[in-house]
């Protein structure tokens, strides 16, 4: 049976209001009491996820910013990789004049936007983690964990996805966390590579892992885990990329908790 459970947050473990449900919290506590290891694997900032983990009340590894940061069960930073400053500069130059796209930068203690977006507050009700504004004419280039771009039209963002891949090739990692959020990390960064690091630190193997996700930024993790499960509400691109992976229910129905309860507890 699996010893490590890795799960995405938004659209997977959390409810539509981006909070943890009572039943899910109970399942995670029972899983921990049984001796299983839980891993938060998300695109969110590590400060944000630290608050969520504290609210749930179990020790857990945190894979954050799609694998650009890993914290262990005692909250020690065990892996860190930033986007190169020259890449950050070029990314912002490529997008800054597009008034339909919001630019975000995660740094060690900051979440920066090029313009206000109060709608994002719903994602951070529990943690209280909030953003501040930066100037695209004088952007902070150092210590960028990731740079990401939000637009209401997925097909529009795929144009930028192609441009970034063509421009930077293997010098960056590019992935959609949601259909409307395109993310750029340093080369070699992914949830899959981060999970490899976690299992090595735990003295286990990827054969001991089960993983849950719904976004393109989950694909590598769902592939490397012994069993990767896709949420029913996942984007069709995820399902098309992983046609042989099992699809379970929706986060609305706490499908992750239900699966763990029936198969691991």
UniProtKB/TrEMBL annotation:
Record-linked InterPro entries: Cof, HAD-like_sf, HAD-SF_hydro_IIB, HAD_sf
Asked if Metal-binding is a keyword of the record, the answer is yes
Q: Does the keyword Magnesium apply?
A: yes
> What Gene3D superfamilies does the database record attribute to this sequence?
3.30.1240.10, HAD superfamily/HAD-like (3.40.50.1000)
- MF (Gene Ontology): magnesium ion binding; phosphatase activity
Q: Which cofactor does it need?
A: Mg(2+)
The UniProt entry, under CDD domains, shows: HAD_Pase
Q: Which keywords fit this entry according to its UniProt record?
A: Hydrolase, Magnesium, Metal-binding
Query: What does the similarity note say?
Result: Belongs to the HAD-like hydrolase superfamily. Cof family.
What is the protein's name according to its record?
A: HMP-PP hydrolase
Q: Which organism is it from?
A: Candidatus Enterovibrio escicola
